[in-house]
Amino acid sequence: MSSSATSQLSIESDAQIEGLHKGEFPETPEIKCYAECTLRTAQILKDGKLNVESLRTQMAALPKQYSEPGLVTIEKCKDTITGADKCEAAYSFYKCFYNDNPGNFFLP
Protein backbone atom coordinates (compact mmCIF):
# COMPACT_ATOMS: atom_id res chain seq x y z
CA MET A 1 0.00 0.00 0.00
CA SER A 2 2.66 2.55 0.95
CA SER A 3 4.72 1.78 -2.16
CA SER A 4 1.69 2.63 -4.27
CA ALA A 5 1.37 5.99 -2.54
CA THR A 6 5.09 6.76 -2.79
CA SER A 7 5.11 5.96 -6.50
CA GLN A 8 2.11 8.22 -7.11
CA LEU A 9 3.71 11.12 -5.25
CA SER A 10 7.13 12.72 -5.31
CA ILE A 11 8.38 11.09 -2.12
CA GLU A 12 12.14 11.44 -2.26
CA SER A 13 13.14 8.69 0.13
CA ASP A 14 11.90 5.94 2.39
CA ALA A 15 13.41 7.95 5.25
CA GLN A 16 10.57 10.46 4.92
CA ILE A 17 8.01 7.68 5.37
CA GLU A 18 9.99 6.04 8.17
CA GLY A 19 10.08 9.42 9.89
CA LEU A 20 6.29 9.35 10.24
CA HIS A 21 6.66 6.25 12.41
CA LYS A 22 9.06 8.17 14.65
CA GLY A 23 6.80 11.18 15.06
CA GLU A 24 8.49 13.30 12.40
CA PHE A 25 5.76 15.13 10.52
CA PRO A 26 7.24 17.43 7.89
CA GLU A 27 4.86 20.05 6.60
CA THR A 28 5.25 19.09 2.95
CA PRO A 29 2.44 18.55 0.45
CA GLU A 30 3.94 15.20 -0.57
CA ILE A 31 3.87 13.76 2.94
CA LYS A 32 0.38 15.14 3.60
CA CYS A 33 -0.88 13.54 0.39
CA TYR A 34 0.96 10.32 1.23
CA ALA A 35 -1.19 10.14 4.38
CA GLU A 36 -4.31 10.72 2.28
CA CYS A 37 -3.31 8.10 -0.30
CA THR A 38 -2.60 5.38 2.25
CA LEU A 39 -5.76 6.04 4.26
CA ARG A 40 -7.88 6.21 1.10
CA THR A 41 -6.34 2.99 -0.27
CA ALA A 42 -7.12 1.26 3.04
CA GLN A 43 -10.71 2.54 2.77
CA ILE A 44 -10.29 4.52 5.97
CA LEU A 45 -10.72 7.90 4.33
CA LYS A 46 -12.94 9.03 1.49
CA ASP A 47 -13.08 12.59 0.17
CA GLY A 48 -11.32 13.84 3.28
CA LYS A 49 -13.78 12.19 5.64
CA LEU A 50 -12.93 9.38 8.03
CA ASN A 51 -14.84 6.13 7.56
CA VAL A 52 -15.02 5.35 11.26
CA GLU A 53 -16.90 2.07 10.86
CA SER A 54 -14.37 0.72 8.36
CA LEU A 55 -11.52 1.76 10.62
CA ARG A 56 -13.14 0.16 13.68
CA THR A 57 -13.74 -3.08 11.76
CA GLN A 58 -10.16 -3.20 10.52
CA MET A 59 -8.79 -2.34 13.94
CA ALA A 60 -10.89 -5.01 15.68
CA ALA A 61 -9.42 -7.65 13.36
CA LEU A 62 -5.88 -6.95 14.60
CA PRO A 63 -4.25 -8.69 17.58
CA LYS A 64 -5.48 -7.30 20.90
CA GLN A 65 -2.15 -5.61 21.62
CA TYR A 66 -2.94 -3.27 18.69
CA SER A 67 -6.72 -3.32 18.52
CA GLU A 68 -7.56 -2.39 22.11
CA PRO A 69 -5.44 0.77 22.32
CA GLY A 70 -6.17 1.48 18.65
CA LEU A 71 -9.91 1.54 19.23
CA VAL A 72 -9.39 4.02 22.08
CA THR A 73 -7.24 6.19 19.80
CA ILE A 74 -9.90 6.14 17.09
CA GLU A 75 -12.41 7.59 19.53
CA LYS A 76 -9.96 10.31 20.55
CA CYS A 77 -8.96 11.19 16.99
CA LYS A 78 -12.09 10.68 14.91
CA ASP A 79 -13.18 14.31 15.24
CA THR A 80 -9.74 15.85 14.78
CA ILE A 81 -9.72 15.64 11.00
CA THR A 82 -9.35 19.19 9.86
CA GLY A 83 -7.73 20.88 6.95
CA ALA A 84 -8.23 22.91 3.84
CA ASP A 85 -8.20 19.78 1.67
CA LYS A 86 -8.25 15.99 1.89
CA CYS A 87 -4.45 15.76 2.23
CA GLU A 88 -4.47 18.15 5.19
CA ALA A 89 -7.36 16.20 6.75
CA ALA A 90 -5.55 12.87 6.45
CA TYR A 91 -2.33 14.38 7.78
CA SER A 92 -4.13 15.73 10.86
CA PHE A 93 -5.50 12.25 11.58
CA TYR A 94 -2.05 10.68 11.12
CA LYS A 95 -0.58 13.15 13.62
CA CYS A 96 -3.35 12.60 16.16
CA PHE A 97 -3.08 8.83 15.84
CA TYR A 98 0.68 8.99 16.46
CA ASN A 99 0.55 11.57 19.25
CA ASP A 100 -2.14 9.70 21.18
CA ASN A 101 -0.10 6.50 21.44
CA PRO A 102 3.34 6.59 19.75
CA GLY A 103 4.19 3.06 20.89
CA ASN A 104 1.15 1.66 19.10
CA PHE A 105 1.44 3.68 15.88
CA PHE A 106 1.31 1.39 12.88
CA LEU A 107 -0.41 3.27 10.09
CA PRO A 108 1.23 2.62 6.71
Topology:
Layout: H1 2-8, H2 14-20, H3 29-41, E1 45-46, E2 49-50, H4 52-60, H5 64-77, H6 86-100
Antiparallel strand pairs: 1-2
Structural features, described:
The protein is mostly helical and 108 residues long. The chain has one domain (2-104): Orthogonal Bundle (Recoverin, domain 1), CATH 1.10.238. 60% of the residues lie in helices and 4% in strands. The protein contains six helices and two strands, in the order αααββααα. A two-stranded antiparallel sheet has the order 1-2. Helix 3 (29-41) packs across helix 6 (86-100) and helix 5 (64-77) crosses helix 6 (86-100). The longest helix is centred in the last third of the chain and has 15 residues, at 86-100. Residues 1-23 are annotated as: Disordered. One of its GO terms (biological process) is sensory perception of smell. One of its GO terms (molecular function) is odorant binding. Residues 1-13 have a biased composition (Polar residues). Pfam families: PBP_GOBP.
Task: Summarize it.
One of its GO terms (cellular component) is extracellular region. With 108 residues, this protein is mainly alpha-helical. The protein has helices spanning 2-8, 14-20, 29-41, 52-60, 64-77, 86-100, and strands spanning 45-46, 49-50.
